[in-house]
User: Which sequence fits this backbone?
């Protein structure tokens, strides 16, 4: 009986601690400018931490939706100042893959515009004294993963970059890429063929980049998004959620960020 009482007490204490962490989180939409474009991003952070490492979240090609905000909230619960970036402007959310592709395509072809949008978010961080802009990373999903990788290739002022099921092609890289890179790749991702994986690894090895490439067997494109299976069926896309790969890749990201972003 005494042992059971201790277990119950420990469980209760853990639950209260977890609740306290989330209770202190603040999440809110913010507006900021990128050139002439009005952007509507989302920030999340623990209001009881005076200074936090920053993690920018670049969303999937749908836009800065609830999924991107959820990831920002999760990062905030880990003690990061998280900023889900509005790449399209005006908080636009694409209703179909056609519109999403049209919106995303210009950022693949105009890297200067893509970097401008990310830099606008970085500049906005200066409005938040608790955000440690000298201690920053970028994570991205699908389209956002591609943009995160291009940010590393462009040597934006971040220490680490994580791509979840993102495309691996990108801008021509300089002789040296400074941010550390983690690739979380689905083993059955039909959107990122094997030759693209090979070319990426060759590119990174050529310039001696510090990168890690983790392949999650059986995972398709968009494997981290719980809505991916339903979306795949709706639009006849080869995407699906993989709970095991989602959990594992998040843990891999946590360890990676902890290594390079010091709290």
Assistant:
């Amino acid at each position: 009986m005494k042992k059971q009482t201790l277990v119950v007490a420990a469980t209760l204490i853990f639950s209260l601690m977890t609740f306290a962490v989330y209770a202190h989180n603040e999440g809110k939409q913010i507006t900021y400018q990128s050139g002439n474009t009005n952007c509507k991003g989302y920030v999340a952070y623990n209001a009881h931490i005076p200074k936090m490492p920053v993690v920018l979240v670049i969303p999937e090609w749908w836009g800065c939706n609830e999924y991107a905000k959820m990831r920002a909230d999760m990062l905030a619960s880990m003690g990061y100042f998280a900023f889900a970036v509005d790449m399209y402007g005006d908080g636009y959310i694409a209703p179909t893959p056609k519109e999403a592709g049209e919106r995303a395509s210009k950022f693949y072809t105009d890297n200067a515009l893509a970097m401008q949008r990310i830099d606008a978010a970085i500049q906005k961080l200066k409005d938040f004294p608790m955000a440690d802009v000298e201690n920053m990373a970028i994570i991205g999903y699908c389209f956002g993963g591609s943009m995160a990788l291009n940010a590393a290739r462009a040597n934006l002022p971040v220490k680490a970059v994580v791509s979840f099921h993102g495309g691996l092609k990108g801008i021509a890289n300089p002789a040296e890429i400074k941010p550390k890179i983690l690739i979380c790749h689905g083993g059955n991702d039909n959107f990122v063929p094997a030759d693209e994986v090979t070319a990426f690894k060759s590119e990174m090895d050529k310039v001696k980049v510090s990168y890690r490439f983790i392949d999650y067997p059986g995972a398709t494109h968009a494997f981290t998004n719980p809505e991916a299976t339903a979306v795949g069926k709706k639009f006849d896309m080869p995407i699906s959620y993989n709970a095991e790969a989602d959990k594992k890749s998040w843990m891999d990201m946590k360890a990676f960020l902890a290594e390079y972003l010091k709290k």
Notes: DSSP finds eight helices and eight strands in the chain.
